[in-house]
């Protein structure tokens, strides 16, 4: 399979970083959505993190997740991926991240934003293939 190149608009990128910074010291989490045919991420919706240890892991608040899904459908977008931040660690999937994945959907990407250096966020996108996270290339495209 050829390596996937993911696209995100400047506006969505800025919103992604802002959502992660706003959530500090907790992990931010949420969904990435866009136009289904193009597969480009054009919108980012943060979802409240209700994990009992929110600075080390994340769990979507169910009511917020439903609201975000409804908002996405209303704006005729599709779910393209998920994001969450790592406030103090590198952008590599944690054990909790590995255990939290239940789908092998090739159309969904998983983005981890490391805020180890808040002024220089480090982003790594992954696709989940054959039971593990595979790094994916991404680029800003407007
Ligand atoms: Zn994580």
From TrEMBL:
Q: Name one GO biological process term.
A: proteolysis
Task: Using the record's annotation, list all stretches that form the JAB domain.
Answer: 11-115
- What's the domain of life for this entry? Bacteria
Q: Which UniProt keywords apply?
A: Hydrolase, Metal-binding, Metalloprotease, Protease, Zinc
Does the record's keyword annotation contain Metal-binding?
yes
Q: SUPFAM superfamilies, from UniProt?
A: JAB1/MPN domain
Q: Which GO terms describe its molecular function?
A: metalloexopeptidase activity; zinc ion binding
| Pfam entry (one) | Prok-JAB
Against Gene3D superfamilies, the record matches this protein to: Cytidine Deaminase, domain 2
Coiled coil, from the record:
none
> What CDD domains does this protein's entry cite?
MPN_like
Please identify the protein, giving its name as recorded.
JAB domain-containing protein
């Amino acid at each position: 399979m050829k390596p996937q190149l993911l696209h995100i608009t400047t506006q969505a990128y800025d919103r992604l970083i802002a959502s992660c910074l706003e959530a500090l010291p907790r992990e931010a989490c949420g969904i990435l959505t866009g136009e289904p045919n193009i597969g480009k991420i054009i919108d980012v919706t943060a979802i409240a993190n209700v994990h009992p240890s929110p600075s080390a892991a994340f769990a979507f608040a169910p009511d917020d997740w439903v609201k975000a899904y409804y908002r996405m459908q209303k704006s005729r977008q599709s779910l393209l991926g998920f994001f969450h931040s790592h406030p103090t660690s590198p952008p590599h999937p944690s054990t909790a991240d590995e255990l939290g994945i239940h789908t092998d959907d090739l159309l969904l990407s998983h983005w981890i934003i490391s805020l180890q250096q808040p002024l220089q966020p480090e982003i790594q996108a992954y696709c989940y293939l054959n039971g593990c996270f595979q790094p994916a290339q991404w680029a800003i495209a407007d």
